[in-house]
Amino acid sequence: MRLLIVEDDPQLNQQIAAQMQGSGFACDTSHDGREGLYLGQEFNYDLAIIDLGLPELDGISLIRQLREQQRNFPILILTARDAWQDKVEGLEAGGDDYLTKPFHPEELRARAQALLRRSHGLAQSKLQFGPIAMDTDAKSVQVNGRTVELTGYEYNTLLQLALNNGKTLSKAQLTEHLYAQDFDRDSNTIEVFVGRLRKKLDPDGSINPISTLRGLGYRFNLTPDHPAPKP
């Protein structure tokens, strides 16, 4: 999962990035609204965390412009303002939730996780795809009740594929969600991750959770046991 953090306080920006990276997220950071807008336009994020009191371009304008350009990733607003009008304005501009400073790091993580689940139509952190069970909070995976040890990148690759089950994701799409902007990327590593996942999840070839579509990418074949209701 890849996050955009737009916060002008360098210390808080770094703290949020460190916390979210510790939870397995790849993070791009910005300290002003103009750069935040550029990053939000250029890259496909899973979530953005945006402060309202930004230099160059304020947070409300940043959120509004992202939504006008059809950037539909969930946005968690950070604000030091207590006035309810400011919070309402942020939500009406296109934010999905807000958190008032100062906040507890665990609340930030919990709200971010909840927004990510909601954006994929999921009501809880525990997902079941046939014999494969995933807990997005604990970042754990089991197959037929047996715990499978995955690296962070393997887990995030599996999560991206599972949340988009039935859809074909290219190497470029997977890479964009797995790595931060300044990471030296090699799309061939996706082949390695998928190969490892197949061996760990399906050593005897009985489940076939991931298909390769030559020249197109990869598709997760299993459907959720309890799909989200259609809106």
Characterise this structure.
This protein is an alpha/beta fold and 231 residues long. It has two domains: 2-119, Response regulator (Rossmann fold, 3-Layer(aba) Sandwich); 126-220, Winged helix-like DNA-binding domain superfamily/Winged helix DNA-binding domain (Arc Repressor Mutant, subunit A), CATH 1.10.10. The protein contains eight helices and twelve strands. The protein has helices spanning 10-22, 33-42, 59-68, 84-93, 105-119, 152-163, 171-178, 188-201; strands at 2-6, 26-30, 47-51, 75-79, 97-100, 126-129, 132-135, 140-143, 146-148, 168-169, 210-213, 217-220. The strands form three sheets. The protein has a five-stranded parallel beta sheet with strand order 2-1-3-4-5, sandwiched between helices. A four-stranded antiparallel beta sheet has the order 6-7-8-9, with helices on one face. β1 (2-6), α1 and β2 (26-30) form a beta-alpha-beta unit. The longest helix has 15 residues, at 105-119. Mean pLDDT is 89; it is low at 227-231.
> Which regions have little confidence, pLDDT < 50, spanning 5+ residues?
227-231
State the domain count.
2
Query: Given the helix and strand composition, which structural class is it?
Result: alpha/beta
Task: Output the CATH topology of the largest domain.
Answer: Rossmann fold
On the 0-100 scale, what is the average pLDDT?
Answer: 89
How many E-type strands? 12
- Strand line-up in the sheet with most strands: 2-1-3-4-5
Helix percent reads 25-40%
Radius of gyration: 18 Å
General form: elongated
Biggest beta sheet attributes:
5 strands, parallel
Helix and strand pattern: EHEHEHEHEHEEEEHEHHEE
Mind telling me which CATH architecture of the largest domain this is?
Answer: 3-Layer(aba) Sandwich
Distance between the termini: 25 Å
- Total helix count? 8
In CATH, what is the homologous superfamily of the largest domain?
A: Response regulator
Please report which band the strand proportion falls in: under 5%, 5-15%, 15-25%, 25-35%, 35-45% or over 45%.
15-25%
Query: Which class of the largest domain in CATH terms?
Result: Alpha Beta
